[in-house]
Amino acid sequence: MTEAYFLESVVVVDDADDDFAYEAVDVIDSDDDALLHDEDLAAATRAAQNGYRSTAPSVRQSPTDHATADQAQAVAGAALTRKPEVIDDFICNFLNRMGMRRTLEVFQTEWYELESKGLIDRAAIGAVPDVYSANVELDQERKALTAQVAKEQKETQMTRATWEKLTQERNHHRMHHRRVEQEKQLLIKQLKQMRKLQLEYEPTLEQLKAKHQAALQEKDRKGRIIMRLKEQLERTKAALAQMKEAAERAGQPLPDAVLDADQDRATRRKPRSARAVRTSSAKARSSTPRRPAGSGYAISGGAGPLVNDRDLFALPELGNPHVGKSYEQAGPAGFSSAASLPAHEDSIAGLAMHPSHPVAAAVSDDGKWSLWTLETNELIMSGAGHAAWVGACAFSPRGSHLATGSGDTTIKLWDVLHYQCTSTLADHTQAVWGVDFHCSGDALVSCSLDGTTRLWDLARSLAVATLRGHVNSVNSVKFEPYASALATGSADHTVSLWDPRTHLCTHTFFGHETSVARVAYSRDGTKLASADSDGMVKVWDTRAQAELHSVLTCSPDTPYAANDLVFDASGNTLAIATEDGFVRIFDMAQAALVDALQHDDAVNAVAFDADNKTMVSAGADAALHVWSF
């Protein structure tokens, strides 16, 4: 098969008719044939770098050619920058590289024809984008952005580390600021207390001076008594000597019993201890009726001699008789109601049991006190004398006297054997919440709403000391059995132990979150119980000074106050009187509430008798409830 070629007839027009000035075209040597085949910017650049110059002598160079040569030299010496190609150059180069010469000629002919006619708008067509250059620029931009991101991340990490360091320093300084603020508040509080104590120093010093003067006077008085006794002894000896001489002159010797009477008494009679002397003198003074101010009773008598405060709290030589003894636990099989006695017209606020007989004393908001025998459940006696409600009572160790504390700020001492008021103590400035006797019977302690605890010498009806340390009302006070120590419970949520001989606080128990309403010792003195107004009861070990048990007597959602509590003789059962109308029984061995005895109203007081056979409770229903077990 043969190829067929078709030719198109073209009419050549005379060039002289178009008024165009034609010039001679340089003939390119064969050495530069590469320029024909590689007619692009890269080839022109290589030619410029190789120092290409046109050397044909017959070729005339126009000013434009000189400018082109100068531009080529400038390009050869400058940095090269690849620019996007125009669209026609791009197509021509492409057709040339592909060897499509006829297509190239046809394209150029038609393209230049259109361009000569002004039908091509190069601005609208634009240039062919250089993808490589664009990719390079984008890659450079990416690298720059990546470096910038890395730098920003590093700066961010440094900033975060600085921020965390500053946060730690801020927390550190904030913690120290809070600590300093707390210490400041504590120092301010202590400063106020010191200022308050400073204001009390002057009257305290005056009181100490008065005591010192009284002691000096007592010393002088005793010295004078001793001198008189010595003088009397000398006179007696002189009289005996005269009698002996007279008898010898008369020839009748004096009997030995008369001569040695004083010596026999001195050798045969053992000297009495200070305790016995004070007890006998106290008995002698108590047998003489006295009339306190405003008591309303026909009592008279003196105050008696001064007694050392330490002697008031002297301990028995045999110590606590309950230590080491074993008692039967109260209520192991449960409690049963034995009697209910309507005792008063108003709520009963306090109870006290006689130390040796089944007798209960009750005090009431009606301002009266009463004594009831538990054997026959009968009223023995009742009394009145306070100007307000009576909230506390206590029997003396011998059971002959009853002390009552009242809202009229006074304490009255009643002789229940002779049915009379023997003393009225009125140093408190606000209501008296609690009273208790020391085991000696010569001293009494009281606590008051005025925030103080006072120690009283009953022989002189005088307050010998005021214990200060609580910052709120002192609600309860109890002497440790057969010991020189006492415990107080206060509205400042603390329980404190005191030495009445030095008037100093020896320890403070913390743990209550509300006002402490009552404290109570076990008979052996090893345990101390406290109750607060939220129903929380805590049992403390007085020897180790640590908490033994903690029990909530009511629901946390509906708190009821624990008004009173008392140990049985064994110290293993704790009876708790609560505001919700129950007497709850706490077993130490089980560390749990084991029973609940119901009243018709709030229970304010509870007590065990001396024989540990009966329990008595009383409250807002104004009745005494007797329980057997």
Automatic annotation (TrEMBL):
Record has Ligase as a keyword: no
Region (Disordered): 243-302
Bias (Polar residues) ranges: 278-289
Xref: Gene3D superfamilies: YVTN repeat-like/Quinoprotein amine dehydrogenase
Source organism, top-level taxon: Eukaryota
SMART domains, A to Z: WD40 (SM00320)
Organism phylogeny: Eukaryota, Apusozoa, Apusomonadida, Apusomonadidae, Thecamonas
UniProt name for this protein: Uncharacterized protein
Keywords: Coiled coil, Repeat, WD repeat
CDD domains: WD40 (cd00200)
Keyword check for Transcription regulation: no
Start-end of each WD repeat: 341-382, 383-424, 425-466, 467-508, 509-550, 596-629
Coiled coil: 135-200
InterPro entries (alphabetical): WD-F-box_domain-protein (IPR050995), WD40/YVTN_repeat-like_dom_sf (IPR015943), WD40_PAC1 (IPR020472), WD40_repeat_CS (IPR019775), WD40_repeat_dom_sf (IPR036322), WD40_rpt (IPR001680)
